[in-house]
Design a protein that fits this description.
This protein is α+β, with helices and mostly antiparallel strands. The chain folds into three domains: 123 residues, Rossmann fold (3-Layer(aba) Sandwich), CATH 3.40.50; 64 residues, ATP-grasp fold, A domain (Dna Ligase, domain 1), CATH 3.30.1490.20; 102 residues, ATP-grasp fold, B domain (D-amino Acid Aminotransferase, Chain A, domain 1). The chain contains ten helices and 19 strands.
Length: 348
Amino acid sequence: MKIAFFVNDLASEYPNYATTFLAWQARQRGHDVLYVTPNDFLLNADDSLTVHARCVPGGKSKDHGAFFKLLRSKKCSQEMIDVKDIDVLMLRNDPANDAQDKPWAAEAGILWGRECVKRGVLVVNDPDSLSRGTNKLYFQSFPREVRADTIITRHDKDVKAFAKKHKNEIILKPLQGSGGSGVFKLSKDNKTNLNQMIESICRDGYVIAQEYVPAAKKGDIRLFIMNGHPLKVNGKYAALRREQAKDDIRSNIHAGGKAVATEVTDKELRVAEVIRPKLIADGMFLVGIDIVGDKILEVNVFSPGNLVTCSRMAGEDFSVPIIEALERKVAIMSDYAHDFDNAHLAII
């Protein structure tokens, strides 16, 4: 199997990224591994589509850290590859990282992913559905039962009315963005700063105002979902609790949050079950959901992280079933030719 990983930029990748972990496992299993960025696509005059791919030489590495060093080394070659020769394109970029400095690249994965699908490549997650998930409005399409009370607006009076409804205990964040950037918590102690919070977010677009879920004080639970079901190996779930840093409402790891082991209970499994039908309908092969209490706060459909940490804490390698699932899908493509569209094949 030839598998290509689409990322924002090779320079911004890190050893412990989930993408590195997955690419390492694919190579360990004997597959050809390529890295592709928004800069690398070429649509030719004859309508063929090729990519300037960074190709990792075959073999094995003792761990994903050693694999990453190889990826960054001169041993990797730059080759022009016809996308028809690629079996799987895994979209692992974060559009929010390019939205400001390289807006042309923000939706490149979706654009070229669609073209790859036309040429017989399995693309996960499904690019057509990802086009609807480029901002947090996608979150609003899940059942209200598992969503915190939320509004999206650019009018300060709407936010103020919402804050009053929730006794000045709300979260404010931008419609587009990731990693906890631009997130504020309004409370009775800082309610006089509400205007500044709104203005700060409005400079870049719409404001999401969300009720504050008290259970968030203990952090959120990141749970991986694959093929519509919680990812599990030997009875252990790919999950962790992300605790907030002191005096910081954000539980994102690179925003200062701390990862700790957690038990996945019936409450979290119920939330996962409620959102499962939509994830399947949308061809969302691998996602990360952030749960607080009995609510989801985020659904990361692009590049969910913390897979390495989940594996370390559980003592199980969660990259294995993910690559195995891709192997199975490629086999199905071979057996059934064009009987399944990309969105259906992505979650079989």
